[in-house]
Design goal:
13 strands; about 35% strand; 4-stranded antiparallel beta sheet; 4 helices; alpha+beta; disordered C terminus
């Protein structure tokens, strides 16, 4: 069975586990319905990578490797044929995303080497118990592993993750 994935920074894992579910967001677009986004990309969804803004206002796009080292990478999988999923354009209509904004997002995605054909969403909250969890540890792993996160230049903090 093929999967779609909700990708996120490892630093958000604790909050997700404490909440017990994945919830949609409207990413600051108050007029849009919150949606929970997934990708069919089996390695990493490029649009999930963090941007860093320096004190001088300079924006840096991280590579996947930089993202994994600085924030960690996690993903929650859902069967691709799950009845709650909508394809990209249908999800945008459901969310109330205008055609202009949808096209702008597609263009931004292409610039990051993402493909909007890989994008799916649902308006439903999904309990983590209904999802397949994986964490990046030099490859995607469903088993226990140690996630090392740099909290400062001089020290690593290791946390054991098990779901």
């Amino acid at each position: 069975m093929s999967m779609v994935w909700h990708y996120s920074a490892g630093t958000k894992l604790s909050a997700i586990v404490n909440c017990g579910e994945l919830r949609g967001t409207n990413v600051g677009a108050a007029w849009e319905r919150p949606m929970l986004w997934f990708s069919a990309n089996q390695h990493w969804e490029p649009t999930a990578t963090k941007l860093l803004i320096s004190k001088d206002g300079i924006v840096t796009e991280l590579t996947f490797e930089q993202q994994a080292k600085k924030f960690g990478c996690i993903r929650f999988g859902l069967d691709a044929d799950d009845y709650r999923l909508l394809e990209w354009k249908a999800a945008c209509r459901m969310a109330g995303t205008t055609r202009e904004i949808r096209r702008s997002l597609e263009k931004s995605g292409r610039r990051l080497h993402a493909n909007s054909a890989d994008w799916f969403a649902t308006e439903h909250r999904i309990p983590v118990s209904q999802l397949h969890f994986q964490i990046w540890c030099k490859g995607w792993s469903s088993t226990r592993c140690i996630l090392a996160q740099d909290r400062s230049e001089s020290s690593d903090v290791a946390q054991e993750i098990s779901l």
